[in-house]
Amino acid sequence: MSRKGNCWDNFVAESFFKTLKVELMYDYDFKTIEQAKTTIFDCIEIGYNRKRSHYFLGYKTPYEVEQEFYQFKNAA
Question: In this protein, which residues make up the domain named Integrase catalytic (predicted)?
Fold first, then answer.
């Protein structure tokens, strides 16, 4: 772990929130908190977890990795 304030501390989270801001937050004008929550949930669960491949996961989506994990777990 690096020192507090080092930009490498939380690279994965920082990358995720940058993507969320650039691809979602700046494009919408939310009227209610519920509208914002629903849109952000959809973006994360559908767009980010099921469609976007990730370098850290061997260019697979988080959903694909999760499915492989449960298939392996149930086979054992």
Answer: 14-66
